[in-house]
Amino acid sequence: MSAHAKLSPSGAHRWMACPGSVVLEAEFPDTSSVYADEGTAAHTLAGWCLDDKLDADVYRGGEIKVGERTFAIDDTMIDNVQDYVKLVREYAASGTLLVEQKVPIGHLTGEAGATGTSDAVIVRGNELVVMDLKYGMGVKVDAANNPQLQMYALGALEEFELLGDFEYITMVIHQPRLNHVSEWSVPVAVLHKFADEVRERSGHVQLAQSLEFDSDPDLLPGFLSPGEKQCKFCKAKATCPARSEEHTSELQSHHDLVCRLLLEK
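The structure corresponding to this sequence follows.
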């Protein structure tokens, strides 16, 4: 039985860099933005197309409900999803395609039964291909050294190890609304090194979760590491003591610089 992963691949860029963020975020409810829900709708349409072997315009005029929001299958969604569907089909032409494939990650994070869901996994010869659709229009995301895709790839290796002796993993990110495709192909041995890193960082998170911060709040900052990437979408960034301290230090440095310049006049 699969289990919801607290140490999810999609959040790996945050919890691997800042293990204490998992503790802080646990105090906040799970919510979703309109942009995230729109992305979910696009993934749903892509899944229909690939599963049913149909093109996106077949679903024109329909709607997809995500939570409390409803999204129209309009020209914009059709065009962008079809670009992704076309790319997946090109990669899968000489292999076996698995859509919205659940892959185990508990062997990496220590969470029993935990899984992640890869948008597409393709088995072709001695190679596995892991593909990820990103529907947003924000910053371009590259496949190289991407922790989310590497975790999916490791999960796919675990899931399909009996199908063959895989030598290479190819990871692909497609951002159709930015006309961006990024591919990274590496030997399996490279991913095994990353697996060791994930296990180490997961251990840091588990240690942070086991400590009694309520009784000794001074312990928590040792597990917090603010940074642009990990803080950007962190639910706890507004209340994070380490981030607050960092900003205070920056303001103090700016104040000291201004004072020094004024004294030098």
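The CA atoms of residues 24 and 236 lie 6 Å apart.
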